[in-house]
TrEMBL record:
Cited SUPFAM superfamilies: PLC-like phosphodiesterases (SSF51695)
InterPro entries: GP_PDE_dom (IPR030395), PLC-like_Pdiesterase_TIM-brl (IPR017946)
GO molecular function, one term: phosphoric diester hydrolase activity
A Pfam family that the UniProt record links to this protein: GDPD
Example GO BP: lipid metabolic process
Organism name: Paenactinomyces guangxiensis
The name this protein goes by in its record: Glycerophosphodiester phosphodiesterase
Residue intervals of the GP-PDE domain: 52-317
Amino acid sequence: MKQKTIWILAAVLAFIYLNNSSLLAKKPTGDPFLLAHRGLGQTFNVAGLTNKTCTAKQIYPPEHPYLENTIPSMRAAFKAGADIVEFDVHLTKDGKFAVFHDWTLDCRTEGTGVTRDHTMAELKRLDIGYGYTADGGKTFPFRGKGIGLMPSLEEVLSAFPDRSFLIHVKSNDPQEGIQLAKYLSTLPPRRLSQLAVYGGDEPVAALHERLPNLRIMSKASMKKCLIPYLAAGWTGIIPSACEKTQLHIPEKIAPWLWGWPNRFLDRMNDADTRVVIVGGGGGFSSGFDSAQDLKRLPAGFTGGIWTNRIDRIGPLLQQDTIRQDQDSLSELLSTKAVELLVSSSLK
């Protein structure tokens, strides 16, 4: 009986390994896709950040002229190689959606108060570059250059009619989800297929109830998918909550997922779920922002990559793709040359 138990246990362990090992999975094909956080914007030191930190007051010395969440920054992000651009929205006093990061205006603009207490017209009069400084307030390199640059959601989608976006609802107000669903429901199905929404549990749930075919993500939807997957994913079974959604997987957590990376990505792809890897433990929008960061990705990774520096990462991945294509072409030509040589020698 003891020997039989050992054999059964060995068989189960062998099944788990064979069913989840990426070493035995089919070789990944295709390229990863890039998700540009807030388009192309100014970056800052994330050490010691809290939810109350004014990040505009601690940016690195500017390397480009773009401000996050603006149409020019999104255009620059797509040009640099972004497949998807993420941006933040807030419901305005007159029922529109302003594309802006902060809950309040005091950090980035010369305005004061809560963003949603202002109309879209009032927000457009503000200078969104007013508060940015890289030297502790000695100089303000973007002051006076951001007047009128805060766009509405409608303006962004009109400016990029064929591009994909991830819309971030910054509040946890279910009414915001209802209002967003009301607006998005006016768009044709093809346009909706290019959009995804994530954010607070309550607004995302309210939106998903009204637009069940729209790709969404929240902490609640992540838990509904990943907790059952951690329990039963070793079997290859995909929980229904993992179907047609979006998952942002911190790189420190990813290795604990059954089948990571290749089997996991294949399973989620079969479930029509988009997987994006984010940096570190996922705190404060940590991304893959340098060549060194990219080296931490699994070999042949084909999922999404979250980046705050699309201007750096886009060209690097494009170079890698060109290099891989050249290697594949060289391999093909070498194979053809050998075939011709063998064929000639047999004549």
